[in-house]
Design brief:
The complex is a heterodimer.
Chain A: H1 5-15, H2 22-36, E1 60-61, H3 71-75, E2 81-82, E3 85-88
Antiparallel strand pairs in A: 2-3
Chain B: E1 8-11, E2 32-36, E3 42-43, E4 54-64, E5 101-102, H1 103-115, E6 119-120, E7 123-124, E8 127-130, E9 140-143, E10 150-162, E11 167-182, E12 186-190, E13 195-199, E14 206-216, H2 219-236, E15 248-257, E16 267-272, H3 275-294, E17 303-307, E18 312-315, E19 328-329, E20 336-337, H4 356-361, H5 367-378, H6 382-390, H7 394-404, H8 409-426, H9 438-449, H10 455-466, H11 473-479, H12 488-503
Parallel strand pairs in B: 16-17
Antiparallel strand pairs in B: 1-2, 2-3, 4-14, 4-15, 6-10, 7-20, 8-9, 8-19, 10-11, 11-14, 12-13, 15-16, 17-18
Helix pairs in contact in B: 2-3, 5-6, 7-8, 7-9, 9-10
The chains are: A alpha+beta, B alpha+beta.
Family (chain B): Belongs to the GatB/GatE family. GatB subfamily.
InterPro entries (chain B): Asn/Gln-tRNA_amidoTrfase_suB/E, Asn/Gln-tRNA_Trfase_suB/E_cat, Asn/Gln_amidotransferase, Asn/Gln_tRNA_amidoTrase-B-like, GatB, Gln_synth/guanido_kin_cat_dom
Catalytic activity (chain B): L-glutamyl-tRNA(Gln) + L-glutamine + ATP + H2O = L-glutaminyl-tRNA(Gln) + L-glutamate + ADP + phosphate + H(+)
């Protein structure tokens, strides 16, 4: 079973990944095949596990102010800043549609 | 416009200045009438044979939790602080940071769930909801999509059916669920420089999302339900719920359908900044959808923004089709376990345990209970107690006056609601800002009760007191010579003088 072009396009939109070429897609296929091996296990009547931590006790913190006030440090990571604000593009720039962008997926 | 769902919904064909686009619009000039009964069910319009549309309104409300620190981090929660000053490394989503749940936020959600008659889930889970936006640094929001903290509740609210007769009716809306989730940061759009400025002070603040089932049918019902929720949250203290400060945000889901047919396509309306605008936005959207459908058009499942200046809803840009949030369990947080008196573990640290029954026992009187108590205790009408609780501090003011005067509460309430409240409204003052204190008003009412002045004179004194010049009622009465004469002889003399005066003409 191959992953369809529609799904690949959807993934590129959602996760902003770029499969770039057939090798990238092949790597995805192999990863899915690898994970599919899980289906060989009979999980009938078994609750799905969320994480290996799910049996642990969830720690509850007291409602005290213990962090913050590190504006300078945080802004050090910013490529652009304006008066202590982070600067971002005006809005989400959606990936152009499949037939409007240069991608090898079109040929598939 | 609709007058509650017991009234007539008229299709106004006149296009005012607010209508987008030039010209009178493409609609035929006929007027259409729609009638609903109080349950929002449509009633056939009778002879005219016109379409009786059934509007359906559901609400998603986000209430900011009133806490010192954020939901998963120790940075402070505060409105209006220097940008990015209330941000921890976790809030900025720097690698290597982890969420740590704030106990107070859980308690707030449990209180709210109990007040709304919900079942509290003793085990609830956290999930990640993925989407990209500049004010969401992690690229996902931690929420409770699979198993939220509270489900299946209800909220009762009152509506004034007939303003003339002051008839109030009680309605109920079902609460689907309440979930804990993170707030996002704030984006300031700078269109001139084509950029967005991001402030993460709000990122990570705890929110309770309250999902109401589509049991409402018009703007008035939606507004009344939200107002009641606001009062409940403020009474509990779980949220200060001030819409103007973004502590209470409402999104409305609106659709219309014909009776007997399935629900129509719904639109989501956002950017509603006050309860008044909520009613307007909902009613506008209902009307827009009805007109669209009657014109043979279709409704798109889209998100629209309410434009308060134009009084209409417009499609929101940036929503490219249906979002795929790729929900997944939050791997860094185990399930949230809550206990009650029965299931309380014996040897656990108290600070790590949340006991639902303990919280239940300590819930304050909810607004509906307070209203009943006022009616019972003071013999006032339900509409009166509704107004008392609707104005912050007014109920306390009323009770304070009653304590300090011999006048019956049934009479006092008239002075509170007709005179004091109208003064406050005229001058846009809150009860706390009133230049007339409960002490002064009680003083004045005592003079009236003892028949030392007439009620007309009392109104004059109140007008003078309103100036807030520090005079007592008695001083004003003396100054303006408003005392009622009690002396029989003196009264006879005055009457005689008037009669004599008449004879001389």
């Amino acid at each position: 079973q191959k992953v369809s072009v529609e799904v690949l396009d959807h993934l590129e939109h959602l996760a902003l990944v770029d499969f770039r070429d057939s090798e990238g897609v092949e790597r995805l296929q192999k990863a899915i095949q690898f994970a599919d091996q899980l289906h060989e296990v009979n999980t009938e009547g078994v609750e799905p596990m969320d994480s290996v931590l799910e049996d642990r006790c969830l720690y509850l913190r007291e409602d005290d102010v213990t962090e913050g006030n590190c504006t300078k440090e945080l802004l050090e990571n910013a490529r652009e800043k304006v008066e202590e604000y982070f600067v971002a593009p005006p809005g989400n720039i959606p990936l152009p549609k499949l037939d409007e962008r240069e991608t090898f997926l079109q040929g598939s | 416009a609709a007058r509650g769902c017991g009234g007539i919904w008229r299709q106004a064909r006149q296009r005012g200045a607010g209508w987008p686009g030039p010209g009178p619009g493409p609609f035929p000039r006929r007027q259409r009438a729609v009638a609903y009964n109080a349950r929002g069910g449509a009633v056939p319009a009778g002879k005219s044979g016109l379409a009786p549309w059934v509007p359906v309104v559901g609400l998603e409300i986000h209430a900011q939790i009133s806490s010192n620190s954020k939901l998963f981090s120790g940075s402070q929660v505060q409105f209006a602080a220097p940008p990015n000053s209330l941000v921890s490394f976790f809030d900025a989503s720097l690698p290597g940071t982890l969420p740590v749940l704030n106990r107070r936020c859980v308690e707030a959600a449990v209180m709210t769930g109990l007040a709304l008659n919900c079942s509290i889930n003793k085990k609830s889970l956290f999930d990640r909801k993925h989407y990209f936006y500049a004010d969401l640094p992690a690229g996902y929001q931690i929420t409770q999509q699979r198993v939220p903290i509270a489900v299946n509740g209800s909220l009762s609210y009152s509506l004034c059916i007939d303003k003339k007769m002051s008839q109030m009716v009680t309605k109920t809306v079902r609460i689907k669920q309440i979930q804990l989730e993170q707030d996002s940061g704030k984006s300031l759009h700078d269109d001139t420089r084509s950029q967005t400025l991001v402030d993460l002070n709000r990122a990570g603040v705890g929110l309770m999302e309250v999902v109401m089932e589509p049991d409402m049918c018009c703007g008035e019902e939606a507004a009344a339900a939200v107002r009641e929720l606001q009062l409940i949250l403020q009474t509990l203290g779980s949220s200060q719920a001030v819409m103007a400060e973004g502590q209470l945000r409402v999104d409305a889901n609106v659709s219309v359908h014909l009776p007997g047919e399935p629900y129509g396509v719904r639109t989501e309306v956002k950017n509603i900044n006050s309860i008044r605008f909520l009613a307007k936005a909902v009613d506008y959207e209902i009307q827009r959808q009805i007109e669209e459908l009657e014109n043979g058009g279709t409704i798109l499942n889209e998100t629209r923004a309410f434009d308060s200046k134009l009084g209409c809803t417009v499609p929101m840009r940036d929503k490219e089709g249906k979002q795929d949030y790729r929900f997944m369990p939050e791997p860094n947080l185990p399930p949230l376990i809550l206990y009650d008196a029965k299931s309380l573990p014996a040897n656990m640290n108290h600070q790590q345990v949340i006991n639902i029954d303990w919280i239940h026992e300590r819930l304050p009187d909810l607004p509906s209970v307070k209203r009943e108590k006022l009616v019972e205790q003071y013999g006032i009408l339900p509409e009166h107690s509704f107004t008392l609780l609707n104005e912050d501090g007014l109920a306390e003011f009323f009770e304070s006056v009653v304590k300090q005067t011999q006048m019956k509460p049934k009479k006092v309430i008239g002075w509170i609601l007709n005179d004091l409240l109208s003064y406050l409204k005229q001058h846009s003052l809150t009860v706390k800002e009133s230049p007339v204190s409960s002490f002064l008003l009680a003083d004045l009412l005592n003079l009236l009760e003892k028949k030392e002045i007439s009620s007309t004179a009392a109104k004059q004194v109140l007008a003078e007191l309103w100036k807030g010049e520090g005079k007592t009622p008695l001083e004003i009465v003396k100054e303006q010579k408003l005392e009622l004469l009690q002396d029989q002889k003196e009264l006879e003399q005055i009457c005689q003088a008037v009669i004599d005066g008449q004879e001389n003409e």
